[in-house]
Amino acid sequence: MDNSQNAGYQAGQAKGQAQEKGNQMMDKASNAAQSCKETMQETGEQAKAKAQGAANAVKNATGTKN
Predict the structure, then answer these.
(1) Residue 17 pLDDT
(2) What single-letter DSSP state applies at residue 39?
(3) Closest among 62, 42, 39, 43 to 54, alpha carbons compared
């Protein structure tokens, strides 16, 4: 393999490594986004449950039905 072939090979290797690194970073970003989405859904469900509990407490305290 002459110098130009070796340089081309090394450039191809570097490009492949850069693409793989980019793919890994995208995977990490996707996982972080999914985790954030799940956390926000859980937070929303907890807030909804607390609001429902508070509404029920008011109904019980005032003797209101439904």
Answers:
(1) 95
(2) H
(3) 62
